[in-house]
Amino acid sequence: xxxxxxxxxxxxxxxxxxxxxxxxxxxxxxxxxxxxxxxxxxxxxxxxxxxxxxxxxxxxxxxxxxxxxxxxxxxxxxxxxxxxxxxxxxxxxxxxxxxxxxxxxxxxxxxxxxxxxxxxxxxxxxxxxxxxxxxxxxxxxxxxxxxxxxxxxxxxxxxxxxxxxxxxxxxxxxxxxxxxxxxxxxxxxxxxxxxxxxxxxxxxxxxxxxxxxxxxxxxxxxxxxxxxxxxxxxxxxxxxxxxxxxxxxxxxxxxxxxxxxxxxxxxxxxxxxxxxxxxxxxxxxxxxxxxxxxxxxxxxxxxxxxxxxxxxxxxxxxxxxxxxxxxxxxxxxxxxxxxxxxxxxxxxxxxxxxxxxxxxxxxxxxxxxx
Length: 370
Ligand code: CP3
Known about the structure:
Blueprint: H1 25-30, H2 33-38, H3 59-65, H4 70-74, H5 77-91, E1 96-97, E2 113-116, E3 120-123, H6 130-135, H7 146-158, E4 165-170, H8 172-181, H9 189-197, H10 199-223, E5 227-232, H11 240-256, E6 264-268, H12 275-281, E7 285-287, H13 294-301, E8 306-311, H14 320-334, E9 340-344, H15 354-368
Parallel strand pairs: 1-4, 4-5, 5-6, 6-7, 7-8, 8-9
Antiparallel strand pairs: 2-3
This protein binds coproporphyrinogen III.
């Protein structure tokens, strides 16, 4: 992987070139297909990026991981930046996403986060009682997450100047579910019981998480992210009434307090019953998983918002011709309407062949060219 060098000092202090002739990196980013699609402006081709585009399906990543643990990788800005830039360049996608994890913000709240080999996240001190909730720390100062902001600064200065960088975190519900369950979960028993039997403590916890998220995401933007994504990966376990009462106000608080002008991508899975409510919670771009047809999902969230999605990640295990057909189907559902960002309906799976991912990106670019 290419080495990433420290950001150069701001140049052009000479004052010799007239300001209106400078095509600053900001304009290049603003006019990029990804940013234009976030604003539902017409584009010359459909922008594409893929959730989990940097990860174990890439041999270079696995090589690096033999030497460095996942959390150490997240906490070493130089390496996180290298992984981010490498994945975006190798795939030829239209946006990079900072290498990090949705759960990093729970550490400064007082939770002990670990990633056991092959087992996913594990929290040794999950939040199980009202007293546990009262002990949670407010993320007043996001300095504990400086490594993320530094990775963003390094990545921004190493990326092609017209390639947007996406910052992200877990959304309040998905973070709360990890904090309460202590890891992944099948039925979310502890989370749902806490939510329904102790709503006061639940709302206090969700508010604390949401306040921290506002600071964390805005600091990612200040460090150089052009857009931010909220991953509400597990919110699909809720029914619409629970979502409205226990989740929507908190997600809305986060989204409403993101620095103005920065697009927010709002993503969840298993959300077919929740799409209208997710839209109500907010976001410039609503992520659709593959279980809904893109045209129908877009109709439901409304054409006054952009959508992202929604190829089944398993399609990438088929042959390039098949991948092309499936991508064509999704582009046909989008029907050239401004505001479609092509993505998978969920993250790339670990065993996915890299050449198929590259074939998908090329196919989307070629077939959507106008
Ligand atoms: O998209 C990217 O390339 C940026 C990096 C990124 C990671 N995780 C790196 C990662 C992003 C955007 C995430 C998001 C994330 N993390 C989600 C939401 C996406 C989704 O799938 O809904 C979730 C639920 C997590 C929590 C998490 N992190 C789990 C459940 C796991 C274990 C399962 C798994 O896929 O390994 C992780 C670990 C993780 N996060 C890895 C990577 C590359 C694998 C760690 C390793 O190298 O072993």
